[in-house]
Design a protein that fits this description.
single chain, Glutaredoxin, Jelly Rolls, 2 domains, eight-stranded antiparallel β-sheet, 17 strands
Length: 329
Amino acid sequence: MAKPLEIQTVEQFSNLLKSSRIVVADFYANWCGPCKQIAPIYEQLARSLSRPNVATFVKINTEAEGCKALAAEYNVTALPTFIIYRDGSVVEKIKGANPQQLKTVVEKLSNDIQSAGEGGSGSGSNGGLAWRGADLPRGYTDISDSVDVRGLELLNADTDFSVRTLFNKDKPTALDKGKTSSTKKDWVESDTDEQLMLFTPFNSSVKLHTLQITSLPPADEEDDEEVPMRPKTIRLYTNRPHNLGFDEAEDIQPTQEIEIGENDWNSNGTATLSLRFVRFQNITTLVVFVVDGDGDGEKVRIDRIRLIGESGEKREMGKLEKIGDEPGE
């Protein structure tokens, strides 16, 4: 077990993200009182959970010459800020000296750290991190947990499938070798035609940066059933009080329309769709309208959806601030 490693340069940190499966970073400053208060707790967690090349805990002084660029790159605007990385991508960000929140989030990694040390992938059902089909853009996190799954609504979906499956944290069974698609229907398909209309409410206001859609239709027909298509044209509508009807959506200007090309799908069957970030601020609901599929079929299939951005409080740009101190202190 080891105490936190003090990062000296951007290059050192970049190399660490490549060599250690999980990295937990404490962004701090010497003048920050709350940073000093939580430091012993962070060190205790580091000593108990560090594993060579598996889980590394580091401290990054945001005022050190070699580290100022890291604070800017990962949008650190308040101190302390704790960021958790897996395989080089941000998966969690905690602002403020909240010992209980830090303990809860970091200790939640314990099973995942053990799994990573044994060569496992750490699935959501094991208490580890959620599966993702593609890397996250730097500085942003997977905020799919901000979705209020109780309010999800999916129009024109085949009744054999559950809408909550779209935000399942586990790896899609279609990617598990040796398992057939009939083992578990952990995806959704459209019903009477290729269109789908998904209404997604959030527990709090969010900022959306990227939409990741995973679609894994079988390569060949199974049981003489028609093979579904991947989505092609997606229209997004924000802050609607309820789901849209298909005719209604045709008469409303979308916040953004995206056409997914064949080359946009990676080896995991995931397309990473960049959003016009300025249009997706303070979002409370998102409607995803799948207009058509990428072929001549009559059904569309979606296995997973991941929402990338920021959740919680509004980001205040400018000078770094201490969280927990009163103004004027």
